[in-house]
Amino acid sequence: MITKRIIPCLDVKDGKVVKGVNFEKLKEVACPVELAKYYSANGADELVFYDITASAEGRKLFTDVLKRTASEVFIPLTVGGGIRSLSDFERVLSCGADKVSVNSGAIANPDLIKESARRYGNQCVVISADIKQVNGAFHVFAKGGREDTGMDAVPWIVRCVREGAGEVVVNSMDTDGVKNGFDLELLDAVCKAVDVPVIASGGAGKQEHFVELFKTIPTVDAGLAASVFHFGEIAIPDLKQTLKNENIVVRL
Amino acid sequence: MIAIVDYGVGNLFSLQSSFKRIGADAVVTSDETTLKNASKIILPGVGAFADAIQKLKERNLDEFLKSQVKTGKYMMGICLGMQLLFDESHEYGVHQGLGLIQGRVIPMRGLIDEKLKVPHIGWNGLQFPKPHFLFKDLKEGDCAYFVHSYFATDCAENVIATTEYDKILTASVAKDNVLGCQFHPEKSGEVGLKILKAFVEQKD
Questions:
Q1: Rounded distance, CA A111 to CA A105, Å?
Q2: Is the ipTM reported for this complex over the cut 0.90?
Q3: Which of A138, A171, A204, B25 has the fewest CB atoms within 10 Å distance of its CB?
Q4: Which numeric CATH code is attached to A5-245?
Q5: Cα–Cα distance, B171 to B141 (Å, whole number)
Q6: Domains of chain A: which residue ranges?
Q7: Considering the entire predicted model, what is its pTM?
Q8: Any chain B CB within 8 A of the CB of A149?
Q9: Side-chain half-sphere of A189: how many Cα atoms within 13 Å?
Q10: CA distance readout (Å), A115 to A165, B92, B195
Q11: pLDDT tens across A125-140, in order?
């Protein structure tokens, strides 16, 4: 049986982890390489690095960090943030990324998914969508959630998958940061519409939220979170034991 | 020295790093002399079968690798690299493989429960129908990372590991000195490193 994946997400700016990290055992909490090693040794199934740098200098620091991480951490690495062209794909793949996640870049350039999937394979291309309800409809937002594109989320995701996206990250802006559980309504709608793996993001506050996610929507493949892991509110080995006790198949 | 065959397919950074991690000297190369001097060969690969076999042929590596295997040298295919070892693949038409191990590669879609997603992406448990040195440091159920839409079948007695995704799928094969893993050992954490270490340490 394939296992449900637990994925910590690291926001990286100028080569350092941005969101506060609080690990007693870890000295260099701002160092993405150290944090990645820690997670890899403690049950993470995959890692997402999100580059929120704007400057070219910051980009260089990011790829250095990526290279060092990929040479020391041997689980799948997904990279997102600022991916707008095939040369951005090339830049991160050559530094050891396994998958590349696109968001605003795919909105601005509708051919990006098709072209990248053709060159690197569908398994390499992840569509990440920031989604928020507007007047009762799920809309796709661009530019880190600052801009409502007016597009309906589910048809947008379906189109991205048809063009070659091999995985979908559904980030609910409504539940993100609220710590009151994942956006089950949105996730259910996406899972019914696509047949590629779906990764749920936004809203995890306690272990039970992951249990609820996988029990309510068995077709969800993975749960992604940032601060609850970084602040030690949820330890991944404990979370996995809880999931196992609930008969959810995980890698221990 | 381990030679990782470079034929323009896929990302070899992690593979090379993982050998470095276990203390093995690995080079990425398409040079015949380097491949000849290598103690063992890794045949990697991601993407489409027809494209990959074509790229091997363009570099005359198909016959060369077969001749290397005949000398008794260990060669291990990974992911698409494993699929290339078989007689044929049914990925977008029928294509001849290297024919080093009996079997054919067929699509999952249509054979497994239609509710399951294809590709088969993620961590799945390994079962071992018979003992093999590659898995000597593993236990039943240890997970490896898979990404594939096609799988090998009719491999006779050469299957040394399987995984369950509705059906029992071939996860690893071995015939004498020719080995293959459908999953990615270089992405399978400690389990993967143990497999690569067992491969490196195996005496000729």
A1: 10
A2: yes
A3: B25
A4: 3.20.20.70
A5: 12
A6: 5-245
A7: 0.94
A8: no
A9: 15
A10: 11, 20, 35
A11: 999 999 999 999 999 9
Tokens of B186: 């270089």
Whole-angstrom Cα distance, residue B136 to residue A192?
Answer: 42
Query: Cβ contact (<8 Å) for B125 and A94?
Result: no
- Which of B47, B125, B187 is facing A121, going by the closest CB pair? B47
Q: Do the beta carbons of residue A137 and residue A152 sit within 8 Å?
A: yes
The token pair at B155 is: 């491999």
Q: In the sheet where B167-175 sits, what is the strand order?
A: B26-29, B2-5, B40-43, B74-78, B178-181, B167-175, B159-165
Interface check for B112 against chain A (CB to CB < 8 A): the answer is no
| Digitized pLDDT (tens) for each residue of chain B, 204 residues in all | 999 999 987 778 899 999 999 999 999 999 999 999 999 999 998 888 999 999 999 999 999 999 999 999 999 999 999 999 999 999 989 999 999 999 999 999 889 998 899 889 999 999 999 999 999 999 999 999 999 999 999 998 999 999 999 999 999 999 999 999 999 999 999 999 999 999 999 997
Continuous H helices in A121-183: 153-162
Distance CA A30, CA B177 (A): 46
For residue B79, give the CATH number of its domain: 3.40.50.880
Q: Which helix H or strand E contains B65, and what residues bound it?
A: helix B61-70
Of A138, A207, A222, A127, which is closest to residue A173 (Cα–Cα)? A138
Q: Which domain holds residue B35?
A: 2-201
In angstroms, the separation between the Cα of residue A178 and the nearest Cα of chain B is 28
Residues 6 or more apart whose Cβ sits within 8 Å of residue A252 = A43, A237, A240, A241, A244
The 8-class DSSP code of residue B157 comes to: G
Which chain B residues have a beta carbon less than 8 Å from that of A76?
145, 187
Give the three-class secondary structure for A76: coil
Q: How far is CA A51 from CA A59, A68, A88, B73, B130, in A?
A: 8, 15, 12, 43, 45
The domain total for chain B is 1
